[in-house]
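Input structure tokens:
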């Protein structure tokens, strides 16, 4: 198997963790070129990959002999380098979300279809053991036909993760309903077997917007300031100079197959995990925690009141970041670069997560009215569903 040469566009914390996965035994991939405008990032990339070419010039990377490009920049800087790499004939990995506007998401898909270059989107939660366990149970008919999906996301590290750097600025992310919620919206769509066609949302900035202590951290990374001792949320210091995204929100969705879904996100909870409840015609399932050894419960018979699950299934263990999801994600991407074909992640699904998050933000910042979600043309959906071949 020929060793794949990979170019990284952006080298921050997420890029460093994903790049490490490239070097796992059996992947046969090397980091050949790294591009980042930050002097710190270029220095750290050079230390991590002394044999790679390190550059601040995007054209230098795009014009190099790499087989594939991984776009790992901040969200608002995804679309342009993705399109440039696709037009240069490179296979592309895009970190989620695919883009922060509907127009850019559709522009990226159009470029991939027009050029025939392979596009892969890093929705790693489709590889998380807790999610794949729930998906398998649903597909096996454990709860019958899915009719509702509810997700509560307790973002316990929200203050440190999202309100002390560029994530707090809506011009960089549109909304945390998109930036953070793109994961969960995609999972809701996957578990439900459909895409949102109507969305309505409410939300506000009820904690972090009132904190006046601000700091420019453009020369820092999140792990430079993260600490569990940063508590309670109202006493945080050193927030981003711009804080205009919501710290609590809730979204209602009607999918194209009739499934009803809801998503709640809060960035000032003391605990940090996701709780999914999926209700079908023959029962329901729910996860209690989302890490290895924690449980997914299934209720599949009638009870008088509250009851323990009729079945429990342990979340399996796996090696690598995000419960093993990152390792599986990179392995699938490399296979896709070599062979093409269908993948568990989907550019169409990534676009649908973007458009749902964008329109949810519009509803939230308007009067909360339900907004229609425009579908992609059928021929575009077919192109990507057929594996981009």
């Amino acid at each position: 198997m020929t060793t794949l040469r990979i170019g990284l566009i952006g080298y921050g914390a997420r890029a460093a963790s994903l790049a490490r996965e490239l070097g796992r035994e059996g992947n046969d991939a090397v980091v050949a070129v790294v591009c980042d405008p930050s002097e710190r990032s270029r220095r750290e990339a050079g230390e991590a990959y002394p044999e790679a070419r390190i550059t601040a010039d995007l054209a230098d990377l795009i014009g190099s002999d790499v087989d594939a490009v991984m776009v790992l920049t901040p969200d608002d800087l995804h679309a342009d380098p993705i399109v440039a790499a696709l037009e240069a004939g490179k296979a592309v990995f895009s970190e989620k979300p695919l883009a922060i506007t509907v127009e850019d998401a559709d522009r990226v898909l159009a470029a991939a279809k027009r050029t025939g270059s392979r596009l892969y989107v890093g929705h790693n939660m489709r590889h998380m053991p807790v999610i794949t366990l729930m998906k398998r149970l649903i597909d096996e008919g454990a709860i019958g036909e899915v009719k509702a999906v509810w997700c509560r996301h307790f973002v316990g590290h929200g203050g440190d993760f999202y309100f002390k750097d560029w994530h707090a600025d809506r011009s960089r992310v549109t909304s945390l309903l998109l930036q953070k919620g793109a994961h969960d919206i995609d999972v809701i769509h996957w578990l439900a077997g459909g895409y949102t066609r109507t969305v309505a949302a409410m939300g506000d900035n009820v904690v972090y917007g009132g904190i006046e202590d601000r700091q420019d951290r453009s020369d820092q990374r999140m792990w430079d300031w993260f600490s569990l001792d940063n508590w309670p949320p109202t006493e945080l210091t050193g927030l981003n100079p711009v804080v205009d995204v919501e710290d609590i929100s809730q979204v209602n969705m009607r999918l194209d197959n009739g499934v009803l879904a809801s998503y709640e996100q809060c960035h000032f909870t003391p605990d940090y995990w996701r709780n999914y409840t999926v209700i079908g015609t023959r029962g329901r399932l729910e996860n209690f925690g989302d890490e290895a050894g924690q449980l997914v419960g299934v209720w599949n018979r009638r009870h008088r009141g509250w009851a323990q699950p009729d079945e429990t299934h342990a979340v399996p263990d796996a090696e690598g970041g995000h419960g093993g999801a990152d390792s599986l994600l990179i392995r699938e991407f490399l296979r896709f670069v070599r062979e093409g074909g269908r993948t568990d992640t989907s550019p169409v699904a990534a676009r649908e997560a973007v458009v749902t998050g964008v329109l949810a933000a519009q509803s939230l910042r308007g009067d909360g009215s339900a907004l229609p979600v425009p579908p992609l043309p059928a021929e575009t959906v077919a192109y990507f569903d057929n594996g981009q071949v």
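The radius of gyration is 21 Å. The chain has a mean pLDDT of 96.
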